[in-house]
Amino acid sequence: MKPLLTALCLYLGFSWNLYAQELKIKADYFESNQKKGISVFRGNVHIKKGFDEINASKVTIYTDEQKTPIKYVAEGNVAFKIEDEHGKKYVGYAQKVVYNPAKQLYKFFVDVHLKQLDDKKEIQGDEVVFNAANGEAHAKGGENSPVIMIFDIKKEKK
Hints:
- With 158 residues, the protein is mostly beta strands.
- The protein is 7% helix and 57% strand.
- A hairpin with a 2-residue loop joins strand 3 and strand 4 (52-63).
- The longest helix has 11 residues, at 2-12.
- The protein starts with a helix and ends in a 7-residue tail after the last strand.
- Mean pLDDT is 85; it is low at 1-19.
C-alpha cells in the first residue's frame, strides 16, 4: 500500500519548493479532494525531499488550481530536518508545523525545539517562526514557559 501512495503523490505533482527534486510521501492512509485542492496523509507520515524531511501523525497539503502546493500542515509529534537557502541545516520537533513554500516560511507550534546544526544554535518555545529564505527567526514562550536560546559564545582572541 505504501508504494502505491508514494506513486500517487508523485503523479499528483507535489513539489516541496521551487527547486526540482523528487518529493516522496509515505503514509498509512491517503485521501484527496482535487476540487478543493486538499490532500490528507495520516498515520506514520514521512515526507522527504533532498535533505528536508518531516515525520508526523497527519499532514495536510493545500494546492492551487495548477496542483502547486501553497501550504503544508503537519500535526502530531512532528519531527523535521530543514536546509535553508544558504545551506544551513536545522533539526527539531514540535506538535504542529505550518509551511508556506512560496515564502519558505515555517511556523512551529507547541513544545518547539529548533536546532541549527552548523552553528550550534537552538531555540525552544511555544511558537517559533523561521524564514528559510533569509534565516530570520522569532519566538514566543508559552503561558508558563519562556523562550530559551542556547548558543556557543566564541572566545575572543587577544
